[in-house]
Structures are given as structure tokens and as C-alpha cells.
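Batch job 17 of 40 flagged for manual review because the log was empty.
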Amino acid sequence: MNCAVHTEVDATGYCRNCGKPLCPACTRDVRGALYCETCLAGMISAPPAPASAGAGTHPGAALALGFIPGLGAVYNGEYVKALIHVLVFAGLIAAESSNIPDAYHAFLGLAIGCFYFYMPVEAYRTAKARQTSQIEPPPPGLMEGRRPVGAIILIGLGVFLLLANFGLFQWEWLGKVWPVGLIVLGVWILVERMKKQS
């Protein structure tokens, strides 16, 4: 049998993809497999199929599992984030159950509630982004970009609880000063948004 391209030359092999007979000048050897130039060019120029598009991640399941601290992140394969969620949630519970004045129980209860509902929403958004093969959305507000916000929260919470355990932290002082934290947070978010717009 002669080559499909050079009809005057005997074929020495066949294209693995289309089966055309090929002479030595027309064969393209790829790790022992022979291809014609047309098939090889088509394979190289074809866009790669997303290998992990939606593989094993269902947003509804991630949302449901997210109500158990850390489990939504584990479901999405984010083990460090899961550990951070568990530690932050446990730290807030420990602070709430410590010996603090009644006025602060409401503040910590609100923080626990917000963080508890943040976890399933964040797990849902991550699973949805993975399912649609999009880049994972950054969490809203503070957690944009690649800043180590989880580490900062853990360090701050740890310092807060350590000072309280050694009696170096006065709860009365916190009751008067904690709104400053909200002001600083608001100014920081405003500055970040203005930087993005400019």
C-alpha cells in the first residue's frame, strides 16, 4: 500500500487517529505512536477539556455541609480553610463562654451568628465556581485578594483570649473602644474600593 500523501512511496505505517497509510516522511512519531501531520495539528490546536470541571462538587451539598463548622471547606478540598473555620468558630464559642460581662455576650453572639452563616455561603460559592469551571470568587469584603486574612483573625483572636486569661485585658475598656474597630474596618474597605476604581 502506498502513502496517502506521496502516492509513489510505499507506506510504512498508519496514523493512529485517522488510519491513513503514511510513508516515513509523513509520519510523526509521538512516544511510539504514529500520527499524520493533520491529526497531530488538530490535537495540539484543540482547546483542552477541563479535567475537573464540576468533578465531585455540588453547590447544594456544599451549602448543607457548610453548616457544620469546617465541613463545607473539607467537601471542597480546602483543608487549611476548614481548619481556620473550626479554630475561629471554637475561639468565638470559647470567648462567649468565658467570664465576661453580660453586655459583651450580645456582641460575641452576633459574631458567632455571622460567622456560622458565612461558612455555608462561602462553601456554596466555592463549589459553584468549581462546577462552572470559573476562577473561585474571592470571599466578599475583607477577604479579597491573597491576603492571609484567616491567619490574621486567628492571631487577633488568640491574643485577645490570652490577654483575657491572664487578666491583662479589661472588658470595660473593650466596651468603650470596640466601635473604633468598625470605623477602621469601614475606612479600610472604602480605601480598597477606591484603589480598584482608580
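Reviewer: the log was empty due to a logging misconfiguration, but the result itself is present. Helices lie at 37-45, 59-65, 71-75, 79-97, 102-131, 149-165, 171-197. Unflagging and moving on to job 18.
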